[in-house]
């Protein structure tokens, strides 16, 4: 059994998609990050970094319970555990390259673009421009790569597609003000529509919908989500 620590944000969405695609049994454990539940001692024992997603596999290697945190690490762990969505042996170097591209580029730049466009105080025009332009550049890299291709790596659906989908479902928010967030990236748009049409993607987007996560961006949420903006308690 997999215990899946979840909040409805892009990185947990990737893991939700893998779990729905693979058919693994899992128990959803909501972590309301706007209430600061990710900072609890109980959750920090699972992820010392205090972020979702994380999993606990009660049937890990050798039958031992193991924890895994960070979405890319979780995808690789589950892919190796199940033998699913890993591509061919020849594909592995490229698969790892694209997973790290997403983990070190597309993901964090998307997150910062959202932060500075929606959450940061006004007057950060340089930061807004910096992160928005970097997202456009990352989208262009993917768009060019996907010309004439159905999948990001090799000839089959892999972890790279699953990981990228997690962020592309938020493209309308990342590309604030764009009438069609992917209009300028036709290959990327075609790829996204194909992945998003998978039955498992529909199920993944419904994960956690029966839990009432906090939505108000009040002072409690700001302190929980952006603790480094506040002085440490004595």
UniProtKB/TrEMBL annotation:
GST N-terminal domain: which residues?
A: 1-86
Stated name of the protein: GST-like protein
Transmembrane residue ranges:
none
Organism whose genome encodes this protein:
Pseudomonas abietaniphila
Alphabetized InterPro entries for the sequence: Glutathione-S-Trfase_C-like, Glutathione-S-Trfase_C_sf, Glutathione_S-Trfase, Glutathione_S-Trfase_N, Thioredoxin-like_sf
Domain named GST C-terminal: residues: 88-217
What's one Pfam family here? GST_C_2
